[in-house]
């Protein structure tokens, strides 16, 4: 970082403070030395930059919006899901931070290696299940005594919700999420080593009058293959590409608007024999299948598109459009 240039008034004020004893040169040196020291916790190794975490957060903000729409339709009640925070921490610390008994959904996300964990607070999970079964959405925390039917209902509901994760991640990679494991005790779940860095996206969830958290735990080995796509440069490239596509579409649209196509107004149709055709002379009349008062077909590039009436305008032959021929009308 280049040295800052002080103005003359700032230099005078600094010299005045040193001469009067308000500031001490030794204290200034010590303060500069302290600024060079930065505390670093090796147990909480930061594997990802702030930009990468920010872009992961953007992906899951979209995921939260999709979940809001999905659960609102499934539960037929007020649902609001938003991203509360995004942190990187050791897996062991994450496990200690969630309830001892909770709803844990482990997802396979092919083609990426590793698994993602979705932890749903029991109050939220039971409210969802109560609504699915026709109740008012009451929350009764009895996660230790889940029946097989309750497990099946919950796992089915959350497995369908995973489809929204596929759409949310589609801007980075095409994944196929599927439920691999359903668990209620975090101690029985060992996805990665305790010191492995994981990114935890916390979703603040409100269903009716019940509030709680949904936590997405994403291990480092899952994120590593897509790290280049989480950079600011990649996102800017994507935005530029979208702008280029839009400009190309507009340019194509302008060219299509100015393109010329042949228009033919058919007065009628008739069939004659070869003998009659060979004997035609000037002044002969061919009878058409249309009557004088009938509308005629107007073809655009040899395809019937309009029904019109022939006439004159400013001493020139013209047609007046009356209706449009829809697809399939021609056969009728």
TrEMBL record:
The protein's matches in Gene3D superfamilies, at most eight in alphabetical order, are given as: CheC-like, SpoA-like
The family database entries (CDD domains) matched by this protein are listed as: FliM (cd17908)
Tell me the keywords, alphabetical order: Bacterial flagellum, Cell membrane, Cell projection, Chemotaxis, Cilium, Flagellar rotation, Flagellum, Membrane
The UniProt entry lists membrane topology as: Peripheral membrane protein
Grouped into one coarse class, the protein's main location is: other
Q: Does the keyword rRNA-binding apply?
A: no
Compartments in which it is found: Bacterial flagellum basal body; Cell membrane
Flagellar motor switch protein FliN-like C-terminal domain location, by residue?
256-323
Q: Which domain of life is it from?
A: Bacteria
Task: Spell out the NCBIfam families in the cross-references.
Answer: fliM_switch
Q: Which family does it belong to?
A: Belongs to the FliM family.
Q: Indicate what this protein is called per its UniProt record.
A: Flagellar motor switch protein FliM
Q: Which organism is it from?
A: Heyndrickxia acidicola
Organismal lineage: Bacteria, Bacillati, Bacillota, Bacilli, Bacillales
The gene it comes from is fliM
